[in-house]
């Protein structure tokens, strides 16, 4: 049975303590906001494709904090060069989790390149990220989260999930959430 | 003839305003500034694959408490437009753009000219305040004030580097 983004998000949320979680502008943000809104979540609302770069910037600026980025296949496909920069900078505190449902979900479910032949885990390995996994089961997901939350990064986990929109109503308090995130991260003691 | 110390003045304006995180897609002109930053152990310079990635990266650094500047050619400004609008302006995330101005005075490559002419209108359309110092004296007179304004407004600002200041690239 294929994993769902909701279950995979919930499994991650159960394990979070002082980690920063950055989401892309689509379903990943709505899903996380609905399931586990918290000040250390950094939602992006624009700049499609940029969330992995933004998360990398946080990881480089705060090497004492673990940063998990929740991206989508369509979004990462817009910014594949980010994988090369992640490999080059190689932050130990950085994990990129991709919800790969093989479609542009927010715009109506049009197929992406991962529906055909492209493998984002293989592309990540080709970019030079050794810990790049493809995840299809709950057991594999658990092991990927162990690596993402406790292992040495950078880690890329491409999680194959069912198609489907997230439940809930998106709160687009763009400025409020950015301010809340900045304050929460600034207040987080060096760890 | 441009005074070759212009590049150190640009690097010094950035550094004395507390900027330690840099992203770049190098061009011939900004690489003179990068030489000073690469040589400075306190500065971290990340070479990205596309300028827009630098916008994302420095925005993240700002949210985590660090000031950042993106060094690029004006062709790269074209690659950043959506991110600057939908991320930095919408979320009020300041970054300093340092933009080498190709396609203007002395240009030898016709392909550079359209973006050269579009540079100022693009910045204006996004509401990004910019300066275009044609001498070191102008840079020194305006640079600190521009960066201060950027952090006061919490919005991007741009230092556009014309060939009168830098000598440009000879083709």
Give the spatial strand order of the biggest sheet of chain B: 2-1-3-4-6-5
Quaternary arrangement of the chains shown? heterodimer
Radius of gyration of chain B, Cα only, in angstroms?
14 Å
Mean pLDDT of chain B equals 97
Please give the radius of gyration of chain A in angstroms. Answer: 15 Å
Q: What sequence of helices (H) and strands (E) makes up the elements of chain B?
A: HEHEHEHEHEHEH
CATH domain class name of chain A: Alpha Beta
Structural class of chain B: alpha/beta
- Euclidean distance between termini CA atoms of chain B: 16 Å
- What is the average per-residue confidence, as pLDDT of chain A, rounded to a whole number? 96
Structure, explained:
The complex is a heterodimer of chains A (191) and B (171). Chain A has 191 residues and is of the alpha/beta class. Chain A has helices spanning 5-15, 27-36, 51-61, 73-77, 81-89, 120-127, 138-150, 174-187, and strands spanning 20-23, 41-43, 67-72, 94-100, 103-104, 110-111, 131-135, 155-160. In chain A, the strands form 2 sheets. A 6-stranded parallel β-sheet of chain A has the order 2-1-3-4-8-7, sandwiched between helices. In chain A, strands 5-6 form a two-stranded antiparallel ribbon. In chain A, strand 1, helix 2 and strand 2 (41-43) form a beta-alpha-beta unit. Chain A is globular and about 45 Å long. Chain B has one domain: Rossmann fold (3-Layer(aba) Sandwich). Chain B has helices at 6-16, 30-38, 51-63, 74-91, 113-125, 136-153, 163-166, and strands spanning 21-24, 44-47, 68-73, 96-100, 129-131, 157-161. A 6-stranded parallel β-sheet of chain B has the order 2-1-3-4-6-5, with helices on both faces. The longest helix of chain B is centred in the middle third of the chain and has 18 residues, at 74-91. Chain B starts with 5 loop residues before the first helix and ends in a 5-residue tail after the last helix. The model of chain B has no long low-confidence stretch (mean pLDDT 97). At the A-B interface, helix 3, helix 5 and helix 8 of A face strand 2, helix 3 and helix 4 of B.
